[in-house]
Amino acid sequence: MGNLLKVLTREIENYPHFFLDFENAQPTDSERDVWNQVNAVLQESESILSGLQAYRGAGKEIRDAIKNPSDLLLQERAWNSVCPLVMRLKTFYGFSLKLEKALQSLLESLTCPPCTPTQHLEKEQALAKQFAEILHFTLRFDELKMRIPAIQNDFSYYRRTISRNRINNMNLDIENEVNNEMANRMSLFYAEATPMLKTLSTATTNFVTENKTLPLENTTDCLSTMASVCKVMLETPEYTSRFNSEDTLLFCMRVMVGVIILYDHVHPNGAFTRSSKIDMKGCIKVLKDQPADNVEGLLNALKFTTKHLNDESTPKQIRSMLQ
What we know:
By secondary structure, the chain is mainly α. 69% of the residues lie in helices and 0% in strands. It is built from 17 helices and no strands. Helix 5 (72-111) packs parallel to helix 11 (195-210). The longest helix has 40 residues, at 72-111. The chain is globular, with a radius of gyration of 22 Å.
């Protein structure tokens, strides 16, 4: 534990010694059950991202069908193009529900007494790594989703077609898979600019609300500690030189931003106040020291998906750093 405390009190200790091993941490026996459960979910994450990256939409088919409402062939072509896309969107949405449960399992493990969140992160590095991987996936998913307006266009067309009570002789078996209730839930999910981040924020808030005997600080301290460790690792050449891959640098930045956003949603005063346990100036500076192309999306996430940035309690300097 002493090593982690040295990282968090750098002002006193000139030489930080803690390294959270995002690349190689392996589960201990005490972590194994939760690790296996979360790992089963995380194994799907790359195929989810690949599916989203390959999403092309049915824009042309939909436009043709709308321009020619009496042409049943074009109506059918549009419908047959949209249906498999809607099934793919249902898969993404279903994965968000699995991710929500995985996150709550990790929070239970990383915040439970008698250990402090700092002790948990140091002793249970494999679970901390999985927590980081969930955040990393989430920001990657949302960055991709924001660049694909076709998702909402396709889903809107699907819902309009279903509610019109259809075009004769069309295969509407898909309603068994995506009924009205499911379509409503999916619609709310995809209406969010950053749907996966919203899912995690809600899951974290619900975790705090449902665990009334667990002090709020156990959860917020877990998030602020992880943000602080990421910041120190990013600004310390001794640590960044130990990364085996350049991708780990971006991974670490995404994780830092992810835990800041969660903290800002869960803590009553947010992440930006002077009393915050996260050094926001330091975190923003670490991001701005990186190539602009690598961090534009992350800076935008801090600007647009946090809850308290525009509060009066946010120092002007922090606001101006993010303009």
